[in-house]
Amino acid sequence: MVGENNDAEKTNSVDEKPNNDSHIIPKLIEEEMKQSYLDYSMSVIVGRALPDVRDGLKPVHRRILFGMSELGLVHNKPYKKSARIVGDVLGKYHPHGDTAVYDALVRMAQYFSLRYPLVDGQGNYGSIDGDNAASMRYTEARLNKIAEEILEDLDKETVKFTDNFDGSLKEPEVLPSKIPNLLINGSSGIAVGMATNIPPHNLREICKGAVEMINNPELNSIELMQFITGPDFPTGGVISGKQGIMLAYKTGNGRLAVRAKYEVEQKGDKKRIIINEIPYMVDKSSLMLQIAEMVKDKIIDGISDLRDESDREGMRIVIELKKNALDDIVLNKLLKHTKLRVTFGVQMLALVDNQPVLLDLKNMLLHFINHRKTIVTKRTEYDLRKAEERYHILQGLVIALDDIDNAIQIIKKASSADEASQRLQARYNLTEIQCRAILDMKLQKLTSLEQGKIRQEQMDLEKNIAQYKIILGDEKEIFAIIKRELNEVSNAYGDERKTEIEDGEEEYIDIEDLIKPEDVVITITNSGYIKRVPVEMYKSQNRGGAGVIGTTTKEEDNVENLFVANTHDYLLCFSDDGKIRWLKAYEVPEGSRISKGKAIVNLLEIESGIKTNAVIPVKTFEKDKYLFFVTKDGYVKKTSLELYSHPRAGGINAIGMREGDKLVNVMLTDGNKNIIVGTKEGMAIQFNEMDVRPMGRSATGVIGIRLSKSDEVIGSVIADKEKTILTITENGYGKRTSIEDYRIINRGGKGVINIQCTERNGNVVSIKSITDEDEVMLISKNGIIIRILCRGVNVIGRNTQGVRLMKLKEGDKVIGAAKIINE
Question: Whose C-alpha in 431, 701, 753, 783 is 20 to 30 A from the C-alpha of 550?
Answer without folding.
Answer: 783
